[in-house]
Amino acid sequence: MTPIEIQTKLREFIVQQFPAAASKEIGPHDSLIKHGIIDSLGVLEIVTFVEQQFAIVLSDDEMVSEHFESIASLAEFIQSKRVPEVSCNS
Q: Domain named Carrier: which ranges (predicted)?
């Protein structure tokens, strides 16, 4: 899955779950926290979605504001956590 595909899935979820996002045109680099789109409970909702959707586990140490600043920063973080797909040609 490419970073753009990850961003698309995140954006769809955020717009669906958070009314403030639905009423604003948020770009990939717009601050989700500063624009009042998510709060601490919103971060937990996103964590649950990310863990289920992308099959990754986030530790408490990784739940920092830098990762949840924007859709782009969250997608980049998810991409870094995903295990690269390995093809077996044996």
A: 4-82
Domains (range + CATH), the chain: 3-81 (1.10.1200.10)
CA 85 centroid distance within chain: 20
User: How many Å apart are CA 52 and CA 56, to the nearest integer?
Assistant: 7
Token pair 């045109």 is found at 25
Helices (H), 18-70: 19-22, 40-54
Confidence of residue 26 (pLDDT cuts 50, 70, 90): confident
User: Which H or E run includes 13?
Assistant: helix 3-17
- Model confidence, pTM: 0.85
